[in-house]
Amino acid sequence: MSLLKQPLLILMLATSMVVSACGFTPVNAPGGTGDALYGEVVIAFPDLPNSTGDRNAYFLVRDLEQRLGRSSDGPYKLNLTLSTRQEGQAITADNSITRYSIIGAAGYSLVRQSDGVVLASGSETNFTGYSATGSTVETLAGERDAYERLMRILADQISARLLSTADLTVTTAAE
Q1: pLDDT band at residue 34, thresholds of 50, 70 and 90?
Q2: What pTM was computed for the model?
Q3: Residue 165: which of 126, 125, 122, 124 has the closest Cα?
């Protein structure tokens, strides 16, 4: 048993030395991107070019504020777009749809408000599903829950992408 543990210990020590030598800094450590962004981002209400409504936008903004903090006058602004659509997934022989997928796409851009420089931008997509085999009330509750879960997933993806890719360094005109 100790023969199996020794190589694992050596591998863990070597990995920690390599990670520390490359300048790895945890995102939420002092001076990290998470520390610099938390409570400093004004999250704009999303544009909804092709979405099912304001309820989803509310959930997306709420979940992003839980991850990035809430600010009304921070140095950064997060602009969002949101679109969702439903697709039938399980169709019976009599053309009844028994399962739906909800596909969502959220575009984002993090802008420094002082000079309008875009620090990070991109888009994230994902999906959730719900069953339509129960009563009307059960189906509606499942649909609402699926949309809320989708907004949580998109908020997780956006915040992870911002924390890992946003370049918050200030460059001057002389550089």
Answers
A1: confident
A2: 0.80
A3: 122
